[in-house]
Structure formats: structure tokens, C-alpha cells
Amino acid sequence: MFKKVLIANRGEIAVRIIRACREMGISTVAVYSEADKDAIHTQLADEAVCIGSAMPRDSYLNITNILSACVLTGADAIHPGFGFLSENPKFIKICEQCNIKFIGPDYQTVQMMGNKSEARKIMKISGVPVVPGYEGEIKDEKHTLEIANEIGYPIMIKASAGGGGKGIRIAQNDEELLRGYKTAKSEAKACFGDDSLYIEKFIQEPKHIEFQILADEYGNVIHLAERECSMQRKNQKVLEEAPSNVLTIELREKMGEIAKKAALAVDYKNAGTIEFLFDKDNNFYFMEMNTRIQVEHPITEIITGIDLVKQQLKIAAGEKLEFTQEDIKIKGHAIECRVNAEDPEHDFRPCPGTIEELCVPGGMGVRIDSAIYCGYKIPHCYDSMIAKLITFGKDRNEAIVKMNRALSEFAVGGVKTNINFELSILETKEFLEGDYNTSFLEEKMVKKDVS
Fold it and tell me: Which portions of this protein are annotated as coiled-coil regions (predicted)?
């Protein structure tokens, strides 16, 4: 096992990893930007190293500074968390060249799955169902129109190197396609440094269902059932639950086996997630593979009793999976709400500032993953998520009741949050019946800022 792990991240995921390491007897190194000098993860780790100024490019995306911190402290492995450098093949390759273990898959796999059009090709060849689309290179606007008319509207234009809902546009006709082509291309270049696009059929009113997988270095792969992630705003998840109430036992087994097939197709190692679009006729299609730990991993941990971060560490250290597929049992139901410092009344604009008052919920079946405290100054230069509130019940109804209670207890003073918005979701007929899809929030609940 590793003696010392550097966590190349910040916020609640850095705290989450530090806690897992501490329980395993592993020393930890926190890295931080100048904006995070008072962050909790710097206090919990055994050592902390400043790696640059506030902007991510100067700190959490600064490969040279992070590797220097690793060498300086003698860390023998790096855990990237999610976001930042977690899916950067260049960073992973350099770690390998420096004999530093990257806790995640190898750079070839990340590179293959990072290019969404290339991932589609691999999955299609491997017998994994994919959304009808065009896998080749899109040459220009004329070529885009030809492809779209061959596939049939509505279609979705997506950045090949994309992620996090960026570089995506939906088109219902030629005019919308040409407009979307330009904006998606520009956004893809700005966000990913790669303006290549691909086109696929837009599945209307789908659910977003993803399967958690674990794979060791000896060819063993298991899935840990699914997460329902359809409650989204602008392709960003807002609330997740596990398991999904629309999957039968037979469908779960079928999709789980397909998820394992997808992992084996790219010789996957460590924790990963296979994301599917699920239509109203129970057809499902591979959407993408996330080659890292997910924000919503706690709900899988709760219903399976398996610590995913500890499993990541064990797999990276060369240990075999300690579970078989038959060992994985689902117990109860879990829900996660992402608590963000943002203003839902004004197009969810970020609301950085100082937390002047804080009351966090507790009690049986309630978990908080966070790095905030009273007096904490939320920086303006990072993601607005300040906490993940997770509840567990013997069934879905009990998990919802607990979430209602927990959100009502959660008070954050000094900044605006989306807590009341999350509460309003729980009150809708569609959510209570589990009858919602990825367009629900945008169509039914999001208020547009007219100021």
C-alpha cells in the first residue's frame, strides 16, 4: 500500500479522500492555491503545499507545480479527485514517467474515452449500444447539414473532447443547426482547446442512468448498480438517487453487464462510470465514460456499503478486487442534493462570499460531504458547489422524507444558496412519482432571469 498520497484537488472531494487515507493509515499531502490557504483540506492533511495563485490554471491545473509538490514531500501516489486534472491524459502520462502512481486508469484509456466520438466508435465495435450518429470527422457547415438530414432531426452537436455539459447544442432544423454549429465549435475551443465536433440523434425526454464500475489490474470487473441522474439544469446534475425506480431487476442486470463490457473494451482499471441515455421504451444507449470518481459517488456507497475511494486506493496499489458480482447487494435508497452558493432567482448566478452563519443537518440516515465552516470565504474562481447532502432510507419514500427534513435544517447565512430550490423539487408530483427526465427542470421549474 502507498505510504503517502498527494491529493491534487480542493474542497469536499479533497476532504473525502484525506479521510479515506487516514482510515487506511496513509499519510496525505494537500495542495492549495492562495485563495484556499484557510481551507479545511489544508488543515486535515498531514502536510500542505501552496501551488500557486487563485486561478485554476496557476494552481490546480498547474502540472509542474503539483508534481514538484509531490517530489518535495516524497508522495508516492496522486489522487486527482474529480474535475481539474482528473481526466487529463498528459498529466497521467507524466506521472507514469516520473514513477508516481496515478490513482485512476492509465493515460491511454483516459485519452480514448476523453474523445467522445472515438469512444462511440470503440463502444459500437464492442457491441455496446450507442445513439445513432456520425463517427467521422465533420468537415464544415455543409457537411454538418448533410449528416443531420441523413440522421433526421432533432440532432445534438457535441464537442468531441467535451464534458460537464459544455460544447453541446440541440437543433430541430437546418437554421438551428448552423447557429448551434458555430457556438458549439467556439465553446469547445474555449473550454477544451479542441473545436472538433460530432453529431448524434437527440433522444427526446430521456433519463440519464449511469452505472458505477470497479476494475482491477487483473481483468476483474464488477458493477455496483446504477444511479438516476436525470434531474439536471443545462446538462449539470442537481439531484441524484440510487437505485433508479424505473429499472427492473432484469434491466439492471442487462445494463450492468453492458457497462462491464464497455470497461473491458478499453482494458479499464480503477473506478469509473458508464453513462447511458434511457428512453421511454426502455432502450438504452452509451453516452460516455467518466474515467474518475464521480461527484455523486456517495449514494452508491450507501446502498452497497462499499467505500469507493478506498477501493480506488487498493486497486491502484495492485490489490485484486475483494468482491465478485454476486457479492454486490443493494440495500435501501439514497438521494444526494448538490448544495450550491448560487441564486436560483437570477439564473443561478454564483454567489461567492463569506459564510456568516451555518447550521448543518444530522441524524440517522443523513450524510454531509463538505468543506465549509462558519467564517469560510467562498472563492469566486471555482465551482459553486459547497456541500453534498445525502440521505438514506429503507425505501425511496423514507429517503425523500429524510431529505426534506435535512434540507429544512440546513441553514447557510451570508450567501445565497439553492437549498429552497432543492426543497421545491422534492415537492413536485413528477419527482415524487419518479416520472421525470433530463428536460424536467428546464421545462417545468427554472425561472429565467429577466432583470
Answer: none
